[in-house]
Amino acid sequence: MGAASKLPNESKLSVKFYGSKKEALGNAVLHLTAVEISLDVDADRDGIVEKNNSNKASWKWGPNGHGAVLLVNCDSESYYKKRVDTEKEEISKVSDLKDMSRMILRTSGPTQLPEGYKLSLHITQTDAESVRVFIRCGPLDYPLVLNKEQLAAEVPYLGGNSELEFFVEGLRFPDKDFEGLVTISLSLLEPSDFPETPIFTDKVVFRVAPWIMTPNTLKPVEVFVCSTSDNYEFLKGIRKMVQSSGYKLKICHEYMNRGDRWMQDEIEFGYIDSPHQRFPVVLDSPRDGDLQEFPYEVLLGPDFGYVTRYAQAEEVSSLDSFGNLEVSPPVTVNGKNYPLGRIIIGVAFPTTAHGRNMTKVVQDFLWAQKVQEPIALYSDWLVVGHVDEFMTFVPAPDRKGFRLLLASPDAAYTVFTNLQNNGHGKAKLFQGKGEEISVNEILSNEEFRAENIYVQSCIDWNRDVLKKELGLDEDDIIDLPILFKVMAEENRAVAYYPDMVNMIVLGTNLGIPKPFGPQVNGSCALETEMRSLLEPLGLNCTFIDDFASYHKLLGEVHCGSNVLREPFAFKWWNLEM
Amino acid sequence: MGAASKLPNESKLSVKFYGSKKEALGNAVLHLTAVEISLDVDADRDGIVEKNNSNKASWKWGPNGHGAVLLVNCDSESYYKKRVDTEKEEISKVSDLKDMSRMILRTSGPTQLPEGYKLSLHITQTDAESVRVFIRCGPLDYPLVLNKEQLAAEVPYLGGNSELEFFVEGLRFPDKDFEGLVTISLSLLEPSDFPETPIFTDKVVFRVAPWIMTPNTLKPVEVFVCSTSDNYEFLKGIRKMVQSSGYKLKICHEYMNRGDRWMQDEIEFGYIDSPHQRFPVVLDSPRDGDLQEFPYEVLLGPDFGYVTRYAQAEEVSSLDSFGNLEVSPPVTVNGKNYPLGRIIIGVAFPTTAHGRNMTKVVQDFLWAQKVQEPIALYSDWLVVGHVDEFMTFVPAPDRKGFRLLLASPDAAYTVFTNLQNNGHGKAKLFQGKGEEISVNEILSNEEFRAENIYVQSCIDWNRDVLKKELGLDEDDIIDLPILFKVMAEENRAVAYYPDMVNMIVLGTNLGIPKPFGPQVNGSCALETEMRSLLEPLGLNCTFIDDFASYHKLLGEVHCGSNVLREPFAFKWWNLEM
């Protein structure tokens, strides 16, 4: 059969039987029907469902790879009676189809299949936890076909050259127990007195898109901060900087934040991407402070997704706040490319018996996304315990396109010693903040110095790990003059003056905690030092007063803000894994 | 510091301080000690632990890849009070070290570290489920250092140029919740009034070797069969064939098999491989018939490993027998290489509501090994439900190096029709077996014909899947003339006469169930047909009478035997994944 049949039993093969003396015995006619069947997806990742791609049943990473992509439908088509779309078993708005992957059953053949033959679409029990399939019956009619209650369903055969359109919905992200691959099969079943038998099966494979974080080097879209009864000065500083930079500012008001100002800690912005659709997705921390409702109630909406993980039978610690979850810019390490950067989290140092950690379900989730292979730093030496207390990344026009900024007590002692040597030993820190102290007093405090030597050793260990894991040279790192204080009760550290590394990065504009450092010739020596370190890179430093409303509460500008950024131009499926 | 110090505080840096009028103020001396530390493994996979490989902290597949390999220590060093070695927390015999991966801590520096400094070896809680570390204290003294009760341990610093030797033991195979990678870290800790701080950490990564199956095309080492009260004829046939082929024969006697003759079904032979050690490992089926004790009691021993999976809260079905677990020879499919072949299992057809399946824990295990990506066929149409009832592979000198043999009712009807046409319609099957039937009688039974059309459709579906998943052409497949009978009670099929595809393959010698087909000119027409199909490939057919003792019990030669084979020359870590 060289082509599909136009009519059932259209082709005939006549067989004549003869006896041994060549006498005619009888005649048999074999009726043949040829049907072309192809279950199709966008396996070449160009946004179009091509016909019968020879690689549609497998998945391969890389620019020469193949295999279709599925999004977790984790946004909410409507704000009214809001729910994440994956929690609904029906399609309530046609716009929801954009978040699904099209799948087309192309058939070619007679008007009807021979009697009793039928088409069955099917998935396995395991895959049904990760995927749901709808069929297009009309422009506004998309009934559910497959889900975990219905693993196989007969689908109509339309006859002639026809296309049946399906929409495939991803239900969950890759995780420890789910690599991300799902298979959908279509079988032609033959009638039989015995169980129906498949005579042909076609298969397609999807990979669920990972959740991807966005580093400081990506263009900001919108800045998020909280308004509280006591943070007017801070808000004013942020607003001025954001507006002059030309980005949007979104303020979370007190009825929603209930006094919880730590916008960095409750959420992490990321996105999901496919050849046909892309949208931001907020990861909600199991921290669950008073800001807890914000990501679901305010952020979740049409084309804005939501995902969370619930810590089970484990205590959630301060290390579960997302000031402890950052991502590097793109790097190459020993020849291995990380074009989407690497995730960075803070954990207990493993030789410590009773350290605090980021909860396992969140760590498992982060590792399972695979495309931004995480690095675990040691952050448990800090009272709050977040990596953003000692590190950040800023864009740079040269070298790798960025610098790693690290808090450095050593650098601070150098600045203070120079001040003393230049006759500014009596210059005061914290002027007007009611707890002034001179450079000389700081330098003469041996206990304080010992604490900072300890802090420096903790940061240095992380510095080594970051150099190794991100492939950095010394010249890729800038040490910022910051001092810490070790709190006697728990032998853990906090920033002594506003922690300048805990900044907000908006393009080349940096919003830095105003350090209230020693006043020399009418200006702050720490601000001067920061400018001299960062301005040569084309960066603009804005110092924002967060002293009373953030610093004294053990956080700073970065902890109190969050930035939604544009996604990477690089497509994750082009990664070589 | 350009080199390691020979003495503590060996290098000194003198700093002189001057006042503003250049008067000497004082003098400070900085004492420096340089220590070289490297935790080393065989990251280049040549069997030798090289020094400080720059890639030792990551793992990459392929001939240009890197990363050390760990074996699950699943053999038992002694037969006496036998236990799998992983269940022992101590090393009882030095020979056990061969099954572990060497890891060396190389240090260079003064006799002692400066006071209070120490070295700590550590692993994470998660990795501790998969790995254990021993240290060499003397030629016969290897105490445990790390396990899941002890995640970090101080290790001695020996001074000078010294090497401390560790042995790393893998505890579990890759599985659904374990990708196979483990990390071991070594930190230099600095004394402090505060928590001890790491000032340097070195890391190494291992991947646990997967369990690998061996296809029929690999050279046999030993053949296993059971002796029962009623299988003398069968044993005689097998013994003759095995001995003339020059392989070893191992008979499992009745006190051990307790009448359970299905040697194929209780176990599957495979192996694990590393650059330093390799040994066979038997996978014990959750089937657990009366042969249940055999793999643990008889096979497990020095350099013979054992692994099993226990079905949980799921009923074990006939599909859990390992006649339903096979592996193809090496293939290339759409440009993708499978140099270790692909695993083949049988499952229910997914559109069936209440089919039988291979239990999930075994399927998960097989998929997690990764290097022989499994293919699921449809075998639930058979009463016994094993893939070896309708398919096998034999070596061939041409094409892909093998042929796929498939049972084919169509091929059988062709043979029988030709016999009838050539005047042998009265030739009898089952001669001397007390249930003789003629070719004419078989051909005239329309119900029987309908059953075989149904069986052919089930095999044809699998044929399509195998062609697609193994990249086979028509010429790679040989259809063997075999008829089936559908049992009315459950609408599932059994072989009508001895199922010739269910053969034992020993190099080019095939042990085939003697079919007792129609006698034509003093020889069996089915045997003649088999020879004409297989002998042109250089294969020798030996027909073994398994009629009473296997066929009547719904199994055949393959079900009743098992073959331990040599491993692949190809190393699994050279796979491109």
Automatic annotation (TrEMBL), chains A, B:
GO terms for molecular function: calcium ion binding; protein-arginine deiminase activity. Its main location: cytoplasm. Residues 35-190 form the Protein-arginine deiminase (PAD) central domain. Keywords: Calcium, Cytoplasm, Hydrolase. The keyword Cytoplasm applies. It comes from the Eukaryota. InterPro entries: PAD, PAD_C, PAD_central_sf, PAD_N_sf, Prot_Arg_deaminase_cen_dom. One of its GO terms (cellular component) is cytoplasm. It is found in: Cytoplasm. Gene3D superfamilies: L-arginine/glycine Amidinotransferase, Chain A, Protein-arginine deiminase, central domain, Protein-arginine deiminase, N-terminal domain. Signal peptide: none annotated. It catalyses: L-arginyl-[protein] + H2O = L-citrullyl-[protein] + NH4(+). Residues 199-574 form the Protein-arginine deiminase C-terminal domain. Its EC number is 3.5.3.15. Belongs to the protein arginine deiminase family. PANTHER family: PEPTIDYLARGININE DEIMINASE, PROTEIN-ARGININE DEIMINASE. This is protein-arginine deiminase.
